[in-house]
Write a structure and sequence with these properties.
single chain, Jelly Rolls, Immunoglobulin-like, four-stranded antiparallel beta sheet, 17 strands, 37% strand
């Protein structure tokens, strides 16, 4: 169940879960025996007066011309759609996509269905989607995820932790986060803070812009997971340019549940 108050949004993402070797389940649905999320049914439980659309950045809107990214953001600002959003934030940039790409307006008792896999079981990156900021009203919604096959068991990390708990021991992981209190977050989840000592740069989660960074700006915060990849890029006319540095999340490096990164140039 999801509730979005005014100005709240959700960064564009895939519902297909990352394929990795850290689990006893095979998430690679393109291989025999591998399963992953196949389809999503997003249920709209309320009408929303303005905003709150489900946007598909790789899809083209059904009517009207498609603008450049910079033009779309300028139009969103001119329409007053970004007034309640922090300048330079990913929410503000998303508003450009929300008026420029395929976007489904919430309507009570309706739903949107989309597929996360291609016919051969590989991830369909066209299913990238996000929740546009609510401009006026409150949005209630719910997700149903359909898998192409069963998902078995726990992750290896969960299993080790559960066994240690039953035996009354401190869980030390398997070569990761050794020492009491080092491992932070459930299933590799941890809070991260990103900052930069130089201006003119932005933080990206893989290919998705997250927010502007620079001297005097507050740290960009995010809830992330073990082995998630983040990078810093130059800002070039509203577009992400050259990758300056890349970071990979290691939960064992968390201090009081937080990992911090700073780009010094």
């Amino acid at each position: 169940m999801l509730r979005y108050n005014e100005s709240k949004a959700y960064i564009s993402h895939l519902d297909y879960l990352e394929v990795n070797d850290r689990s006893n389940h095979d998430f690679d649905s393109a291989r025999e025996g591998g399963t992953n999320r196949f389809a999503t049914v997003l249920l709209y439980l309320t009408d929303v007066e303005q905003g709150g659309e489900t946007v598909f950045p790789h899809g083209y809107k059904l009517e009207g011309e498609t603008l450049s990214k910079k033009e779309a953001l300028a139009k969103a600002k001119a329409l007053g759609l970004t007034a309640a959003l922090q300048p330079g934030s990913w929410q503000e940039e998303m508003m450009g996509e929300c008026i420029n790409r395929l976007a489904v307006k919430p309507k009570k008792a309706r739903a949107v269905l989309f597929y996360s896999q291609n016919e051969d079981g590989t991830v369909d990156k066209r299913s990238l989607h996000g929740a546009c900021p609510v401009i006026k009203g409150v949005k209630w919604a719910a997700n149903l995820w359909v898998w192409n096959g069963p998902r078995y068991g726990y992750s290896a990390r969960q299993r080790e932790k559960a066994v240690a708990a039953v035996e009354g021991e401190d869980w030390k992981g398997n070569g990761e986060g050794k020492g009491k209190g080092k491992y932070k977050g459930r299933d590799g989840r941890v809070e991260a803070e990103f900052s930069s000592s130089v201006g003119g740069v932005a933080l990206f989660w893989e290919e998705t812009r997250w927010g502007e960074m620079g001297p005097g700006l507050p740290a960009v915060k995010a809830i992330t997971y073990q082995n998630h990849k983040w990078n810093v890029r130059r800002e070039e006319g509203g577009e992400g340019g050259e990758v300056l540095v890349a970071w990979e999340i290691e939960t064992a490096e968390a201090v009081e549940g937080v990992v911090k990164f700073n780009y010094a140039g």
